[in-house]
Amino acid sequence: MSTAELRVRRVRQLVPQFSDWRELLASLLPGIALVGMLLWAQSLQSQALTYSGLNLLLSAAVPLVLAAVSQMFVIVLGDIDLGTGYLVGLANVVSARWLAHDPLLALAVFAGIVAAYMFQGVLVHLRQIPSIIVTLGSSFIWLGCGLLVLSIPGGTSPGWLGSFFNASPPLVPMPVWISVGVALVCYAICFLVPYGAVVRGTGANHVAVSRSGWSIVKVRMASYGLAAVFGILAGLALTGTTGSGDSTASANFTLLAIAAVILGGGEFAGGRSVPVGAVIGALALSLVGPVLGLLNVSSDYQTGAQGLVLVVVLAGRALTKRVEQ
Amino acid sequence: MSATAASPSEFRESRLERARSYADMFPWVWSFIAAIAVWIAIALVAGRGFGGTLTSALALAPFLVLVGVGQMFVITAGYGAIDLSVPYVMTLTGFISTGIMNGGHGSVLVGFLAAIGCGLLVGVANIAAIQLLSIPPIVATLATGLMVQSWAAVRAGNFNAEVHPGLHDFVVRQWGPIPELAVFTVLLAAVAGFLLHRTAWGRALQAAGQNRRAANLAGLRVNLVLALAYLICGALAGVSGALLGAYSSPSLGIGDPFLLNSIAVVVIGGSLIQGGRSNVPGVWGGAMFLILLVTLLGVLHINVATQNIVKGGLIILVLALAGSRKAA
Fold it and tell me: Which fold has domain A57-317?
């Protein structure tokens, strides 16, 4: 694949192309799920879609949105990151412990995390170890580091962080602005700069990409680095919204982030970047808890309902594909 | 391969090759070497008897081996096959079987059958999601896992059943220095090894993991073969959960560590994570390695946080050194 060809593909990929209505429907499924959840909340509580209602419904969504985007940058390569949850937890405790009093130290730790993530990419590439194993091993490392930083939940959120995430911007509440912003930034990374096309190419056929002169190691490093950056941002969001640090509170983010990416149209085979889909998927999954709350259902059922949403959307996608065949 | 006689230098190379090919024939050897190294290290550091350390590790290993063997069957299926629902099945069946046995008021057999039944049910759900809805295994088992997690949380509410005293005795009983449960688990592992290497099903499973298309074209009923792997995995997780519930009374999250550990023991044991080539002894080796490692770090008075870091680092190091072993 030559650079010129890549450029042509890049331009074409700016416009989503659907061969027929079923493909369009399949790609709209996560959005339909999200809108459905919102309307369901509205039918249960008439204040749900007002400014403050939406703010409450989505108050816990921002960390998961960022974690999902982090996972997406790994999944697009055809890899998988089993460390997302504990990475978010580590960033959470580092920011809760140091960001307020010793911001330079916190930033240095964050830089170290990004470097460690890039090293994971190198390891996956050079030793040909499946990413699932490398990230499995490093998930224990993030957890251990997190427990070293704060052995029991605690710490504080720096004032500016809390006031950013709890701000009341015009028109729509903060979680919506952040989600839209994250989606736009990631869309730009995936579709407006050469990196996006190359990384998709790597996920689809890395031999072809490397034969055309790109360094796969660098692509992996960049993707894993981006995954770390968004994972750290997710940890910061958690600190900002909860006001404290807990290295194990976000353990289930690993599975939820994978679920959000797949919900949003990502594929384990790699080669598909779905920045907007991942954000929508994460929003839909984080609405499950509040909707159950409005239904007066015990929070014990929350994870089960999230699993159900995942199955229903994927079943819908499988069915539209089957009709196609 | 050339048929000509080897020159001296080629001969040296071939000896190295041969050593490598032995290692390829017995990929589980490394896990046992690693486990023994850690075992010796514990004896040196703690000055504790070799026997005592081994006994306590053997007492803990069966739970991990049972679920690890199940995970191994699923991973053998290849193409990203993995079962993320096992930890939640374990937690759930701990509650369910203990609830039925209820401190000796109920039947142990019924409790176990219920645990196996739950495991099989989750296996069926996994298979249905994977094969009927064409959901990738990792997501399908993740979704069912989330639902089972909810089920366990609901079952845990108002839970007040006591552990069955007879079953608890069985789980902790020892024949001399050897825990009884470990003996049964070795026997079960032997059965699993027989299933994997000596039966048509086991070979079909490995063939499907190596090249699913070829296996299909060869006339194997791949879907059935894979379904059985998920069912066995679910059932073994169910049994392991019931035993774990009897060992230390059931609690929410009791299965959680088994998510990553069940995968880790399979991979440390020398089975290919890409599927197609697995071995059962390695699951034992991997489980003993992980458990002895935690013991060693405990003996060294290393805190839980650092234990995790060392454990993660070692998993990566071991596999980075073992290097790339492509699916056969």
Answer: ABC transporter involved in vitamin B12 uptake, BtuC (1.10.3470)
A310 touches chain B (CB under 8 A): yes
Distance CA B18, CA B26 (A): 12
Q: What's the rounded Cα separation, in Å, for the pair B151 and B85?
A: 12
State the amino acid at position A81 in one-letter form.
D
**CA B306, CA A141: separation in Å to the nearest integer?**
8
Our measurement of the distance from residue A42's CA atom to the centroid of its chain's CA atoms, rounded to an integer in Å, reads 26
B82 in contact with chain A, both atoms CB, cutoff 8 A: yes
Domain boundaries, chain B: 29-322
In chain B (328 residues long), the average pLDDT of successive 10-residue segments reads: 54 68 75 89 80 88 96 92 94 94 86 95 96 87 92 89 87 88 94 94 94 91 95 96 91 88 89 88 93 88 88 82 49
Integer CA distances (angstroms), B47 to B96, B299, B315, in order:
42, 10, 26
B77: distance to nearest CA of chain A, Å? Answer: 16
Look up the ipTM and state it. 0.80
Task: Tell whether the model's pLDDT for residue A8 goes beyond 90.
Answer: no
Cβ–Cβ gap B133/A144 under 8 Å: no
CB proximity B158 to A under 8 Å: no
Does A156 lie at the interface with B, CB-CB under 8 angstroms?
Answer: no
The fold for domain B29-322 equals ABC transporter involved in vitamin B12 uptake, BtuC (1.10.3470)
Burial A262-278 (b: 16+ CB within 10 A, else e): bbbbbbbebbbbbbbbb
A30 and A262 Cβ atoms separated by less than 8 Å: no
- Facing residue for B273 by CB, picked from A130, A145, A268: A130
Most confidently predicted of A59-63, A114-118, B98-102, B137-141: A114-118
- Give strand pairing partners of A245: A154
Distance CA B279, CA B195 (A): 11
Could A258 and B326 be called an inter-chain contact, meaning their C-beta atoms sit closer than 8 Å?
no
Q: List the domain boundaries for chain A.
A: 57-317
